[in-house]
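Repro case for the chain-ordering regression, as requested:
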Amino acid sequence: MSRSQAALPGSVSATHIWKRYRPDSRRSVVQETLSAIRRRQRRRARWVLRDVELEVQPGEAVALIGLNGSGKSTLLKVLAGVTHPNAGQLDIGGRIGALIEVRSGIHPDLSGRENALFYGTVLGLSRRQVMDRFDDIVDFAELSGAIDRQVKFYSSGMQMRLGFSIAAFLEPDILLVDEALAVGDVGFQQRCLERMKDVLNQGTTLIFVSHDMAAVEAMCQRTVWLDDGVIRSDGPTADTLGRYRVGLEEKAALLARLLDDPVRMTQLSATSIDEALPETGRPLLLGLTLASEMSGPVDLCVGVSEGPATPIFTLTRSVDLRVGENDLRCTIENLPLPKGRYYVWLGAFGPGGSTQMPWHPAAPLDVEGPPRHPPPRGVMQLSPVHVTARWDARGSESTSFQRKPTDGTAAALLSPR
Amino acid sequence: MTDLERVVTPGARLRTLITAEVSHDEQPADEWAYQRSLRPSRVLGDLWRARQIVRTITERNLRVRYKQSVLGFAWALLTPVGLLIVLTFVFGRVAGVDTGGIPYPLFAYIGLLPWAFFAAAINTGGSSIVSDKALLNKSQFPREVFPLSAVAVAGVDAGMALVPLVILFLVEQQAPAVTTALAIVPLLVLIAFTTGMTLALASIIVYLRDVRVVLPLLLQIGLFATPVAYGLELFPGWARLAYCFLNPVAPVIDSFRRTVLLGQAPQWDYLGAGAVTAAVVLVGGYALFKRLEGGMADVA
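-- result from build under test --
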């Protein structure tokens, strides 16, 4: 019904949030009205958010995930108060800082210094507060040499760093972050995560929109999955991410069966030895049957991924296919995956790179084993890999250990039977 | 499945599969309809808390405007002076306007100043929301900060344009009359009217961009339909009061001339008529703005 400010600082309470945009704003208003009258129909708009509920406690870190167009950014804008919902009630406690489109508020004709003062004030600080944080902002953005230059002479990375730094040093009660990390280089991304961790440790509430599953895992204990404006899952990050990944891959796998390609996978089995369930550190036997309409050599690729598209490792082997059914077996000697749900991906590519079977998720792979250890907060783990390690810690002497790199050419046997 | 087969690219197919199941016919329950409080005390309180933002945006607009220009702030002086020269030539020399004994440049310039302020404010303020839309997504400050800082920028320019006025007084070897102090009254009327018009236009232009295109033309016409280059006496006596209701800038200019140049009090009935319109426009324009404010971030 309304927006109130009575809540505890740092808390967010959004109930029954509905939001839609006007249909097609590119058309002129006159045209639109005329055609609406002619057709005598109500203008129908897409609901971007439908009955969304979100309760966040002070100091909590919550991630919002979902496909493009699922309403994540709109929800963030509603929470930030920059756009109003059509229905619902909002209770926001304290000051909100929003990192939404960090570069777009930066004025190209002003210097970095002028922009910092301007942007900081617009985001809700007093001039004094901006000046107090000015050195931190410049240091964080690594712009000490360029701060008095006009921003239009900055590289796009510099502009992004400036925008992020100003917003990151606002010290709000609630920080909303929308894909702010995507533009920076690796070093800056890591420092952004560090900064967000510091902010969280100060008791700030964080709501974080990202497509980067690793960043989500690194920052947030709780994750909300928005799907076409509806909350599909809201719970611990590992659970929601698991459901999201499975959802994505199951759909992709479903699609793969519709494809009409020269080589198709008809059967895939993944077991440990003696038909046991796949387990961490034990051999994994992949048995697959390919139906082929062509004969000749192809490069067959097998990969395992968690979440869409980016495999943890891939194995490639050249095989000679015959027309008809082809049975293949692949043995991975020590399965380097911790407990979890993964997907096996397949692809077959003929000589010269022609696609005989597109790279697609073929079947889920559930791995049993010891639970995985989450990385420390603020540290992004690229992909889960199981590493056996022995620690010896005696007094001040201790041996450090390094994670073995995942090697795509790991020991594997792949031969046509 | 038939829906899926129509889609060609795998990526698009994935999207369809994942999002196809939901319908958009559902509606939120009526009791959840979102309402913003538009109580005047709340609106003005929010604006007061955002006063630093008005100042910052004003400062930025002033800084940005003359970056990379050689003459910089001198342009704020040169623009009205240039216009004055044209008016002096056309109306003072060619048309021979009756000024009641005042040197024509002074007479015209004191009419030009309020008009230039009004025109600049509604011209830049009218499109201020649209041209600053990047900032709309930044924070939840009240949106009137944009048109209000446009009025403030126009005010600063008008302040600068007082320098040529001082020079004109020196050249004509004349001093402002004692009644100049009374000029505060028409000044307030002018600010109220300008602010109201700017707020109304700024909110309308977000939704109807056509107005943005027509505005400069209307202002051109306004320059000649307002007693800037000539006196209010040019209008027949019976029409003057009605005209002052219609165009508050007219009695404002007339009052400036009377108080600053002629040493008289303003003609209170005319100025009062203008003040009534200005008050209505200010309150109405602000109310309209707050009404339309909710959708601005979505449409701009």
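Ordering looks correct now. Residues 261-372+378-389+401-416 of chain A form a domain with the Coagulation Factor XIII; Chain A, domain 1 fold (CATH 2.70.50.60).
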